[in-house]
Specification:
It contains five helices and nine strands, in the order βαββαβββββααβα. It is α+β, with helices and mostly antiparallel strands. The two termini are 28 Å apart.
Length: 196
């Protein structure tokens, strides 16, 4: 089932999400719905706060990036294969020289900006069976993980922009929070926009 994606301005996007346990109600169904929602919106990642749940869960599928002809065959193969669910994630390390990449977010449609992030990460997380892993990632995979991880920390990519960029985007972001936006997927806008 496709879930509505929560729009910029909803308080759930600014909350630090809570850990969950194996007995979280209907977790398998939620994960399946989140994948369906992400694919329906042509996303490469989706975090639980984006569907209105302040829990530490996100998923990533980088296969759309594999179509970039500027990448090596090895990088494309790696991106094409990478699909993973992260439960209760904790980034343990971020290393390397920051690099810029143009990011967008399903909760902030039609806004894309360069965001600087470190290229190498070490992350601890649990899979759907609650097995614990510690893994290292780099490049685009690391970046998508960092973006989704920010969501469970209550951080949006727009929070990482300069104050000048934020001022330039202020009107656009207000319009999104008021529901004055068209997206190609189902969205849920903050309560204030429903009172109109």
């Amino acid at each position: 089932m496709i879930l509505p994606i929560v729009a910029y301005g909803d308080p759930v996007l600014k909350k630090k999400a809570k850990e969950i346990t194996q007995d979280y109600p209907k977790l398998d169904e939620l994960i399946a719905n989140m994948y369906e929602t992400m694919y329906g919106a042509y996303g490469v990642g989706l975090a639980a706060p984006q569907v209105g749940l302040a829990i530490r869960l996100f998923l990533v599928d980088t296969s759309p990036f594999a179509e970039d002809e500027n990448l090596s065959d090895d990088e494309r193969a790696q991106l094409k294969r990478f699909k993973k669910t992260f439960i209760n994630p904790v980034i343990l390390e971020e290393e390397g020289d920051e690099w810029a990449f143009n990011e967008g977010c399903l909760s902030i449609p039609d806004v894309r900006e360069d965001v600087f992030r470190q290229p190498n990460i070490k992350i601890q997380y649990q899979d759907e069976a609650f097995n614990t892993f510690v893994e290292e990632y780099d490049g685009l995979i690391a970046r998508v993980i960092q973006h989704e991880y920010d969501h469970v920390e209550g951080v949006l990519f727009t929070d990482k922009l300069s104050s000048f960029k934020k001022r330039l985007l202020k009107g656009k972001l207000q319009n999104i929070s008021k529901g004055k936006i068209r997206a190609d997927y189902k969205m849920r806008f903050p309560a204030m926009s429903r009172k109109r």
